[in-house]
Amino acid sequence: MSRLSAPHFPERAVRDRARKGTACAFPPITSYGTTLFGASGPGAAHPAPGDLIDAARLVPPIFMDLRLEKLIELGREPMYGDVELSTEIGGFTARAPLFVSAFGSTQIACSDLGMAVSRQAGRLGIPMVIGENIVPVNGYGRIGACTPLSLLGRVRAYGEELEDGLGGVAIQQSTEDADAEVWNLVYSDPSAQPLLNSGRLAFELKVGQGAKPGIGGMTVLPRTAAAAVSEQYTTDQVFGDAASYLRSSSPGTYTEEILRQQIHLMRNNFPRARVWVKLHPGRDVRRAAAVAWRAGAHSVTVDGAEGGTGWAPTSFMDHVGLPLGECLRAIGRPPSCLLATGRMWEGTRAVKCLALGARGVGLGRAALLAVDEDPDFGLQRLVECMELEMRMLISALGKYEPGALGLEDLYEGGAYVDDPREALAGYDASLR
Predict the structure, then answer these.
(1) Which has the higher per-residue pLDDT, 336 or 154?
(2) Binning pLDDT at 50, 70 and 90, where does residue 312 land?
């Protein structure tokens, strides 16, 4: 044992940093492009012991007035199969309070797995977000030159399986996508007209990401590719390897007025598309959500610190951003559609988020893992399992639709979860 060793001191990490320098701020470079970070594995954003969603319990009442109403409506005792999960998500009709989150342009997401998710999500009739940076990396895919992994290829795969009246596609745009004019490309493309005509196309403004709030997209590039984009992006040789460079994009700069004007611009330039906004788990998330809704956003997505990412510094994944439960508690009962993402894979966590005010929850990593296990039916089976769990849990609470869930259904740390609107009354007044 080293004479410098001490209990609970990260000696190995210190020695690694002393030997490798700046490369130790990131996961091993050998995992770039093949691993999704943030929810498990190296640099995992492990749930804090006091995380609201993990700590809270769902608490059914003994006296169930809504169950009696359902009994009278049905003429028999209601069962969990009588829970109606279909709901409205960001202007789209979904068969359950679920949607597929954005994956971005990692090698994992831009493989056949991304296409498999698109097909199965369409078949299931749940909305799907197509992540940022797809066009700069994989291309758009105009008619006659559409590659399966392009943005248009994913849209087509989803639409070919979609039933009338269900689902919808949200095209996410980051600062990189804005340079590529992604929304203009989609909105003017003839192949997008069926989605527009049926009200099933949305554009999502990405303000931030849960696993790395405050910083922009990051990729690892070989030296020649880094040199080619050095005027557009920041490139940095941080890995101690002359062949590999970190390429970083700007996260964008937002104030209340900038966000408000951006949403107004979206509504004016793309009047037939829904407007979605994705927020990172910042300390002012309540204010940002309120600004977005008042500016006319149809939906706001909050990505908790538990969210995954293709690549980010481990310090961000482990130590930056609010847990999802705290974001939802801060926002309170929302005036419009609130969506939640971050470590979603089973029905219990989903129902807790719905009780905290979310209209739906997003499947990211879980969706990719499901289709990796079975490209034809993996996601379908995952969703079916979650639907069963949600129906049983909602029914056990004496309710028969997700919108009936509320804070009264949650118990945490010896007390029922308080309605944050009273505690934040002064903050609320400042929003008006």
Answers:
(1) 336
(2) confident
Residue 404 CA from chain centroid, whole number: 23
Judgement on whether residues 243 and 258 belong to the same structural domain of the protein: no
Distances (CA, A) of 371 to 35, 70, 121, 218, 388: 15, 37, 11, 25, 19
> Beta strands 244-248 and 234-236: pairing type?
antiparallel
Helix (H) or strand (E) holding 337: strand 337-341
Q: Are 274 and 201 in contact (CB under 8 A)?
A: yes
**Greater pLDDT, 422 or 186:** 186
Domain that holds residue 245: 217-250
Could you tell me which residue, 308 or 268, shows the higher pLDDT? 268
Q: What is the pLDDT of residue 220?
A: 87
**Is 35 among the domain residues?**
no
Answer whether residue 103 is part of any domain: yes
pLDDT of residue 429 exceeding 50:
no
| Residues 292, 271 share a domain | yes
d(CA 206, CA 181): 14
413 & 380 share domain: yes
